[in-house]
Queue: 2 jobs
Job 1
Amino acid sequence: MARKKSILDFYKMKANKEKVAWITAYDFPMASFAEQAGMDMILVGDSLGMVVLGYQGTIPVTMEDCISHCKAVRRGAPNTFVIGDMPFGSYHTTDGEAVANAVRFLKEADCDAIKLEGGVRVASKIRAIADAGIVVFGHIGLTPQSAGQLGGFKAQGLYVDSARVLIEDALAVQEAGALALLVEAVPPELTEFIASKLTIPVYSIGAGLPCDGQLIICGDMLGLFQAFTPKFVKKYANVAEIITNAFKEYVEDVKTEKFPEDQHVYHIKDTPENFQKLFEEYK
Ligand code: KIV
């Protein structure tokens, strides 16, 4: 069994130009598959709101949802670096509230780090959480919790003005004490520039190759999330099709009595005559 990695391992991987592969997971089975596959880290994203809870966005996701799913993931992947994603509203008021909620991810769900969205405007929250001794991952670019302000789930930094904002955000995240940065849905040219300006590892989800590793959402890459597929997703499987076909076959088998077969039932250990006598008693 591979040793659980720490943030120092991710710095070594950066120095050695070894890419980090991470994925989202929200439950025990997905986490255990990720660990068995040798995933470097797992994000318990608030995307769980869309992928497993059926919301249209991430806004309704609560701290209780996140903690509960982080616990399940930790049970499934005890030897993998797990990042808890701070949901909307859990770090948006005071620095104190941000620290208190970040602490819950470590104390209650045994996470190794937390992630939160935003740059300049959340710098004081990042500083406060980092000062509490917690590993913070920043997240800039397409930040789904601000999809309303961004006008939807749209690529960011396509023009010089918005690219400048993202560069300032990236610098602010590092300056505030985050130990890694995730950049979402920006052009690779900008990712490369940001990665060259920072000393902390920079990871991409939809931000191209020139950085220290890639994140993908399990529901997207497995074909489990059907509402839409972002341009940056590579589909590795169509699990929804496999599951639906299995369910259809089961329905058919039940209706036609092809299931259960003899191998799926328990056989009596007493004699048939004794069972007959028992049934007679109740006639
Ligand atoms: O919640 C999540 O899965 C995320 C990714 C979109 C980066 O934050």
Job 2
Amino acid sequence: MEKIVSLCKRRGFIFQSSEIYGGLNGFWDYGPLGVELKKNLKDFWWRRNVRERDDMEGMDGSIIMNRAVWKASGHEETFSDPMVDCKDCHSRNRADQLPEKNGEKYCPNCGSRNLTEARDFNLMFKSHAGPLESDDNLVYLRPETAQAIFVNFRNVLDTSRQKLPFGIAQIGKAFRNEINPRNYIFRSREFEQMEIEYFCRPEDGMQLTDYWLEERLKFYEDIGIPRSKIHIKDIPDGERAFYSKKTYDLEYEFPFGVSELEGIAYRTDYDLGKHIEHSGKPLDYFDEATKERLVPHVVEPSAGVDRTTLALLCEAFDEETVTDEKGNSETRTVLRFHPRMAPIKCAILPLLKNKPPLVEKARAVATSLKPFMNVFYDEAGAIGRRYRRQDEAGTPFCVTIDFDTIGENGPEKQDTVTLRHRDSMAQERIAIADLKAYLLEHIL
Ligand code: GAP
């Protein structure tokens, strides 16, 4: 993890939030490469789950909603973690994460066993809507995106004319005042979720939960996280939420241990039922074919953007020993992202920066590709060093504009470039005219 964290800072993937003021525990900023990586992930999720399907609709709800939503969903009452205070150093820790020695829990900060009893701590951040700070206008920052989907179920149904089964998908920020944020961006206090609520007839719920498990495993494979690295935890009876008939946790082998990436929960009609009860509104469904009214059941695949981004970084990180032209060995650090996730798709490199025809040509190639993908132009330093810089950023392709390109070695090679592959470091010659199609085919 240390190596990954240091690379992420050095290359501009992730910074500590408010760093110049000492940071803020549980909050992170994404830099130029990090924001591209995260955007590629979200865009691909949206493409797979919304645009490529006829049975899904997208939405984007507000972060702050009427407090009644959180009363109905049960979050105001029960969305809490057990917390314990250390009576000696006054640090506060999650009761279920305290270290233990000889059967006795102790404070991870000072080692003291002088701890308070566990008590519940609600994880929702509070604020007030409007100028008065009273209980009447208390609001919460949403701790999950899902509730905005449930309360909009009828709006989406009525405007989209979908029929069961169908889903509503949303990507957005969520906030939890975690007692102990930890493991870098794995557990933070501000994060993003990618959630689907897939509404169905009650008799289809179990089978659709297995269907979504398979869909989600395929998704991870298609972004470069192999199935062999994902552990499927079938949560047993008694450990699931009381309303859930089936829950799978998908866990990834992070360097700090196997930990949750996503949950796929069959939540029955619990959420819509609760909102019907509390709002008094008819959030049910009329089946034209059977002339039957029913409250749909729901299967919820809920993934974390930041956790998946971290998994992408961990999976991509590699160090290998390579030998340069002079026979010296060195360590090559490379992020082996799937090309569709890579923050920079292609680097355009003129062989020399003091040769105007090379520079001109390289800039023209970069400009022609920019509307289609994230391209990086770099003319500074020896070509080998520039390749290494791109390896560290995870750029799958480098294009070098050399004297052949500008026709100095005869017409056959004019308007061709060297295409260098990140993983194999192999190089091939390709016509500029074919470059865009080649790259698009590999990054889509
Ligand atoms: N609507 C269901 C729900 O929110 P969850 O298991 O609490 O379920 C879903 O959260 C996903 O959101 C998790 O699998 C994880 O990827 C992400 N997530 C939850 N808490 C997080 C945190 N504190 N930091 C980063 N990601 C988090």
